[in-house]
Structure formats: structure tokens, C-alpha cells
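New here. Your pick:
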Amino acid sequence: MKNHVLFAATAIALCSTNVIADAIGVTVGTQAWQSHFSGSFGKLANQQNFNLDNKTQGSYFVAFEHPLPFLPNLRVSKTTLDTQGSALLATNFEFDNTTFSGNTNVSSIYKQNFVDYTFYYEVFDNDLLSFDFGLTARHLKSNITVSGMVNNVLVSAQQTDSRYIPMLYVATEIGIPGTNLFVFGNGNLLSIDRNSLYDYQAGMRYQIVDNLAVNVSATVGYRALNLKLVNVNSLYTDLSFHGVFAGLQVHF
């Protein structure tokens, strides 16, 4: 009898270990994003479009999932947005207490990166449907430099900002039966007063390798980010970044 009890306990322990092993997972991924820029920034009544260049940007993420039902999973991602542009001013333009006169050429260098710390729960998680929701703390860092001639002297004005922004996070993925294809979408959203920020992507994932040790997938899709911030350090920002991306992700 003792042997039967011992065998049953061992079997239950092994099964539990397998369940936990299946539930614990780490996913890492990276993307190359061909972003198109549009929009303006400046004083509320004096915003300027600097014809920012379209460039390929990079992003990557790592996600940790576990079987504990009451604790959220964690996803950490980073995106870099760097570009530059120039414009012929139609009127005077003030930036960081510096006034650039109208009918002069000015250039702008826009650098931004943000790290998302996302805490989320899985509502569904199977090969046909997955759905996650949670909250994201986005650490947004930006650096904007405007340069031009002022009284025949080349002057550069610079403004930096660093802040955490809370956002709502949702994600879903739908498997196409009989194939290695999955359709996915995810996004972060914030809307408070006249400030709004959304960042979403949608695309397809093709599973290249699928075994007990590792899953490898290629992804393609479209990503859009819109940033509207009112009176942040006396700066009003209305910028949009959008375009296609291609990436690779590995699940352990």
C-alpha cells in the first residue's frame, strides 16, 4: 500500500512539474521598423513642421510568463526613434527661450526612446486564441535640438524631457488552423484631458521552428504611434510615426 501511495505521489509531483515547466516561459524578440514621420512641435500658437526624415528604427522586447494566477506576467520592451529635418520658417519660431526669425532656415534633431514595463494577465492562452490585458509604465525620454542663424550667429537650442506615463495594455493572437500562421495585434493607450498617446501594431507571425526546447517565429506587420502632449515644459507636441516592420522572436 505504501508503494502505491509513493508511486501516486511521485506521479502527481512529476505531472505538476511538467505543468509548471510548460507554463513558465521566456520570449525575446526584435524588430526593424520603417517609420514615416509627420507632425509638429513648439508653442501652442506657433508650432512648426520640420519635415522629419523617414528612417528605420529598432525595437526589442523580453517577456516572462509564469503559472501563478494572481501575479501578473512581465514584458519589458524598448523602442528608439531618431530622426532629423529642416524647414524654412514662415514666421518667427520660439524654442527653449530662443527666437528664430522668419524666412530663415532651421534644422531639427529629434531623439526619443522609451522603455515599457508592462504587467499583464493572460485571459486565454492556447494555440487558437490568446488574449492579454494589463498596465504599462512607459519611461519616455526625449531630446530635441533646433539650430539656425540668430543675428548672423549659429545658435542651437535644446530641450530634454524624461517622465513615466501610465498606459492601458491589450494584446491578442489568433491561430489559423492547419497552418503555422498566427494573426496578432497589441497596443498601449493613454488619453487624459488633451493629452493622448497610442502605440499599436498588427501583423502576422509565421512559426519556423516548433519543438519542446524552443519556438522560433518571423513576424511582419504595421505599427503606428501618435504622441500628443500639451504644455510639457512649455512644449506642445503632435507627432505621428507609422510604417511596416519585420522581426524575429524566440520562445523558450
About this structure: Residues 2-251 form a domain with the Lipocalin fold (CATH 2.40.128). The longest helix spans residues 2-23. The chain has one helix and 13 strands. The helical segments are 2-23.
